[in-house]
Amino acid sequence: YGIEQFDAIINVPQCAILAVGSAVPRVVVDSSGNTRTATMMTFTLSVDHRAIDGAEASKFLLELRNVIGNPESLA
Hints:
By secondary structure, this protein is an alpha+beta fold. Helices cover 21% and strands 29% of the residues. A two-stranded antiparallel sheet has the order 1-4. Strands 2-3 form a two-stranded antiparallel ribbon.
């Protein structure tokens, strides 16, 4: 639907929900200062902090970023 980013609302009895935006081309600057186009997505994790520690939720998002960026690591 072309939605780049959104926040998902947790419904009872859920304790977390992951919102995934569409993949869009963006201009990025690499470590050498050069610009290039990269396809990027937004992932937004909503959690109930009564059930899930925010630090653990952050670790999940970091691991998700690593897997999405390096899918061959799953093999």
